[in-house]
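look at this stuff:

>
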Amino acid sequence: MPFRVITPRRLVAVCVAAAFCLTGSLSQAQLPQTRLLAVFPQGAQSGQSVEVTVANGTDLDELDRMTFSHPGIKAEHKTGSTFTVTVAANVPVGTYEARVHGLYGTSNPRCFVVGALPEVLENDANNTQETAQVVEVGTVVNGRSNGAADVDFYKITGKKGQRLLIECQALRIDSRFQAELRLYSPSGRRIGRSIA
């Protein structure tokens, strides 16, 4: 087999071409990075503790910490993607950043809302008017969609002449969820509708 002699000038050109090819393929490599898409529930009442689950994200291996942008919000790791979050009574009402830490570093922030009102979790069996979840006036309901056709019913008791405000804050707290709120009378007649 004949050998070819490579001149120094040609050797430099070959090395530069090889280095360019190697650099080009390395620049396209994606290293894992902890990415947080959602936590649930996405908030808590001041002075209370709540169990928070990292509901969605990528590269969430070996999560061990959850931190917040306010020092009065603390999280204790329970198992896997679950944390017990305690909000001190002196934490002002507002929206704060939540991040998780794991094998692949610290995640991007997501919103965590601290409120003054009592909070409850959505009951997943509330999909019909007959199984509507009873909610007290002045309560925050932490819910989530279980699919594009998910419908949830809540039952509230008001007094004649009482003004009630029902608000969906999904878009204000980093969610892509777009809600349609409908109000029905006790007889099942629709008496109001609003797209949030």
Summary: Helices lie at 8-27.
